[in-house]
Amino acid sequence: MNEPCAHIIDDDDAIRDALEWQFRTRGVPCRLWAAAEDFLAAWEPAWQGCIVLDIRMAGMSGLACFDALLARRCELPVIFITGHGDVPMAVAALKKGAFDFIEKPFNDKDLIDVVEKALAADAERQRAAAGRETVAARLATVTAREREVMALILEGKFNKVIADELNISMRTVEAHRAKIFDKMGVRSAVELAQMLTGLDY
């Protein structure tokens, strides 16, 4: 079950049914859960989408569920449904990384608008992760010597300086540079630097 969807976790049958109808009316795929424990038992790291989580429930609370998800390194955006007295708890959850919270009584349209933003954010996260995997796969093809040359290219050094520092010929540096650019799928040192920003290479 890897299609993106909104996971609605709420112990109130009426709220779950109402939200399901609203979500389906707006064309937002969703899956219903009556208890946080059930969701956690089924959760898989590959799931995509977002989580709509009631902050107060019988059994495990929404906050306890959120902490459990953080411990599992779950990256799905979490939107809390809160009562008026729960707002301070929801704000604390935001500081821990929750996506947003909606206060009861809420406008269904507002909730779905936030859910659609969360789904878009998760889709972007998935794209970024796929991009990092592609870069990592390309980096794996770069030899140890090419990595030495690449590090000096990224420092902005000219071919002659690189040749002197590594005690190799200019022609060899040029050959390495061409192979590095080819393997990484870039046309310039600037593109290479942009691709590797934030990565440990």
TrEMBL record:
Pfam families hit by this protein: GerE (PF00196), Response_reg (PF00072)
CDD domains given in the database record: LuxR_C_like, REC_FixJ
InterPro entries per record: CheY-like_superfamily, Sig_transdc_resp-reg_C-effctor, Sig_transdc_resp-reg_receiver, Tscrpt_reg_LuxR_C, WH-like_DNA-bd_sf
UniProt keyword annotations, A-Z: DNA-binding, Phosphoprotein, Transcription, Transcription regulation, Two-component regulatory system
Domain HTH luxR-type: residue ranges: 135-200
Gene Ontology BP terms: phosphorelay signal transduction system; regulation of DNA-templated transcription
Annotated ranges, domain Response regulatory: 5-119
Residues modified as 4-aspartylphosphate: D54
GO molecular function: DNA binding
Name under which the protein is recorded: DNA-binding response regulator
Higher taxonomy: Bacteria, Pseudomonadati, Pseudomonadota, Betaproteobacteria, Rhodocyclales
